[in-house]
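Example 312, ligand phosphoric acid mono(formamide)ester.
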Amino acid sequence: MNLKGRSFLTLKDFTKEEIAYLLELAADLKKKKKQGITGNSLKGKNIALIFEKPSTRTRCSFTIGCIDEGGHPEYLGKDDIQLGHKESVEDTARVLGRMFDGIEFRGFKQDTVEKLAKYSKVPVWNGLTDEYHPTQILADFLTLQEQFGKLEGLHFVYVGDGRNNMANSLMIGSAKMGLHFTILAPKVLWPTDELISLCEGYAKESGGTITISDDLEAVKGADAIYTDVWCSMGEEDKSAERIALLQPYQVNHDLFAKTGKDNTILLHCLPAVKGKEVTEELFEEHADVIFDEAENRMHTIKAVMVATLGEM
Ligand code: CP
Ligand code: NVA
């Protein structure tokens, strides 16, 4: 599999086989790291990390993943560079593309990360936009594989804000990889019809299914339940409205009981607002797997950089 030179902007651009390859590479890099073995596939490579929004996991994963492979990461926070304030995205992209070998971008518009890729002409990796969070899905899927030994055929239910970056990207990834994926959310927070039908097309090919529901009974049979914050970064003003809408969809013991199973796992991309989208008690019961998932951000992000930029 050769992904050299490719950008990682949304999972829509990747086939089932390519996603499976990235997960395999991540599992291998994880195994090696546990044995104290790091690599030098990014030796001599300079990597720009642009953050318009804050981050713990994504920033640290890109930084450590890059250094572990012998590269040099450079953090560029929102007040450090001219991007979008004094200089167009196109111009910043052309400058960075002449200095850096790869660029990570976390921010608001998907259009910005797409433009960075188009104008910099180096691999660009989406570290989260309002619309998508594709690197997170790789960590989620690696965790599912570790827990269940497979992805295909798993019943995976996302509960909460059904039209945010996580819901969108989980739906795309699940549809590509053949999971039975459900979004459980109030109707006003459902994904766009356009994205649903695109994903239904992917699911048809992979043998997966897509279900969108506002009925709590939709968690029945779930192997894994996933949730995320009710207000994403940049939506802090919507707090009261979201609490009113999403309180009935809180992930708690009552909801877990509705799965009818006693081995359903809980995933959360983090950061979590305990007491809102998930109860503290339930979160703590599932903390081991949730923090495996957080650790897996690093191994999967490393895999993306190695596959698209590394000398292998
Ligand atoms: N899950 C995730 O992207 O976390 P950060 O916002 O801390 O990067
Ligand atoms: N939906 C969340 C994800 C954080 C990783 C946000 O965008 O803030």
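Summary: The chain has a mean pLDDT of 98.
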